[in-house]
Amino acid sequence: MEQRIPVTSSEDGAGEAGRRPVGLISFDIDGTLTTGHGPGPITREMVERAKEWGYIIGSCSDRPVGDQKNMWETWGIEVSFTVLKHMLDSVKSRFEADSYVHIGDTDVDYHFARVSGFDFLQVQTMDPEPWMLSPEDGQCHWGPEGRTR
Amino acid sequence: MTSSAGGFPRYAEGMGLWEHRGKVAVVGYGYSEIDRRWDGVSMDRTLGAFQLAAMQNAIEDAGLTAADIDGFMCSEAMAGDSWAQEDRGDPRPYFDPPYDSEDGLSLTSADWLIAGMAREGTPLSNLQYIDRNQLAIGQETGKAAQVVGDGQANVLLMTYNMGNVPGRYKLEEGDYSEGARKWSAPWGWMTSAMMQHAFVFMQYCTKYGGSHDDLAPFVLNQRRNGLLTPWGYYAQHEPYQITLEDYLTQRYICWPNGLLDSDRPVNHAFAMIFTTAERAKDMKQKPIYVLSHVQASHPTKSTMATLEDHEAFTDSLARRLYEGAGARPEDLDIFNPYDGFATFTQSYLEGFQWHGVKRGEAFDFYAGDIRVEGPHPFNSSGGNLGCGRTRTAMYTDSIEQLRGTAGARQVTVRAETAAMGQVTPGGNGHIFLSVHPQI
Lengths: 149, 439
Ligand SMILES: [Mg+2]
Description:
- The structure holds 2 protein chains of 2 kinds.
- By secondary structure, chain A is α/β, with parallel strands linked by helices.
- Helix content of chain A is about 25%, strand content about 15%.
- Chain A contains 4 helices and 5 strands.
- In chain A, strands 3-2-1-4-5 form a 5-stranded parallel β-sheet, sandwiched between helices.
- In chain A, helix 1 links the parallel strand 1 and strand 2 (about 55-60).
- The longest helix of chain A is centred in the middle third of the chain and has 11 residues, at about 65-75.
- Chain A is globular, with a radius of gyration of 15 Å.
- In chain B, the strands form 2 sheets. Chain B has a 9-stranded mixed β-sheet with strand order 3-2-4-7-1-8-11-10-9. Chain B has a two-stranded antiparallel sheet with strand order 5-6.
- In chain B, helix 1 packs across helix 2 (about 110-120) and helix 10 (about 305-325) packs across helix 11 (about 345-350).
- Chain B has helices spanning about 45-60, 110-120, 135-150, 180-185, 190-210, 215-225, 235, 245-250, 275-280, 305-325, 345-350, 360-365, 385, 395-405; strands at about 25-30, 70-75, 130, 155-160, 250-255, 255-260, 270-275, 290-295, 335, 415-425, 425-435.
- Chain B is globular.
- At the A-B interface, helix 2 of A face loops of B.
- The structure holds magnesium ion.
- Magnesium ion (MG) binds next to loops of chain A.
């Protein structure tokens, strides 16, 4: 059994008592990230920003784990987890966080988010999260395919 | 013009040799590019555009022009989901002609395809025979051969597609499954197909021993063969091999049928050209003769067929196909049975007794060397599991193996005959091909 990974202290070195809340975001790939088949609206820049802001990030997809890892390597982003869709609950047991969110595009994402104790955000209809907004103009710049799917 | 053919379908036992054995030949084939889905934007990558390309490629492969074609056959059934999706309350607009209806997007009618060929400067200007109502390619290839054998067409262009547009695939049910379908398809269309084959598969494991894990070598090898098929979906878009661990940890869709046991819908089209053996003699390609074709359409006794049913159905299928060709199991070199779900392919393998495999022996066979380089290159096409849900990889591979042009997939054993078909044991069509006009 893997040990649950505790929340890391925040960048300003505050201890456990004064730490900032840490969120965990699980990304579906196909239909959710711009690298998916078909391409979704969430861009590499958004994901990178989420990580920079301190979110624990990773992917939860029906793609084989090896392919998920290859995808992140191609994007040049080191993630904390890559799990199969039906194993999302393992992420919750591995990582301690204040909030758990899965972002995806299908009923299957909704289903596994719910049964794994995650909040679910439907990528086609969600309000942009703060980490999705461009620091330059404060706007949300979805990927080139937009959110039409 | 006519749309009937003598001797079709061929359902009956004891029909003897096919009356046109060796007198009809496949002389061309072509296929389109392949996408997971149409993107809703690229008008040069619609199902219709892909199908026109496949047809033109087949004509070119045969060394013909469109004017040489006098017979045309297609399947007008919707290939995947509808584009408009009005039934879902989320209607999408159509486009300028020729995409101002579903035609060309989620299905292709004969009229649309014929008009498209004219639009593209390759008019099928000499058609004497048009057949628009074929169920699927398994039946369609048999009928194409029969039509040419019966003399209703001399050079017949047959085409087939499988489509996929954005959205959920084939969501045939609304919020509720009503009537009898509340029992047979409680979660929609595909669950009914999966439940059927999962049920028979579990009966198989109970009767002969083994488990779902025993399908792993077969499914992994299908992907491997698919990756050796340059045009296939995985070779084109997701070029990685799945591992045993991937298989054993896959998500179940309808236990024990998992994600990797199920073919992935794609947008793709295919075409083949049939002509008489006489005409084929001096054509561009080496003729591949049709020795036999048969079909099956079995009503079930209940909402589900049983293992006993599927074994009887596939025993009959193999017996009739071999009989029509004047062949025995040991005469069959290339065997590309259907694999839309991995859980039923063993019904065909054992029914045809390919490489001596008898009932209950498929798992042991899968555990042996079934690679294309090896002694038992089973399903050298990679099928739907290896190439995407085209339903036609079995045909392109069989033709290429018999021509000796299968490249990295070329088998090292004898490749003079081939059998292939689709779809399921209860309803299908199969065809027997050979480089010789008779065995
Ligand atoms: Mg998705």
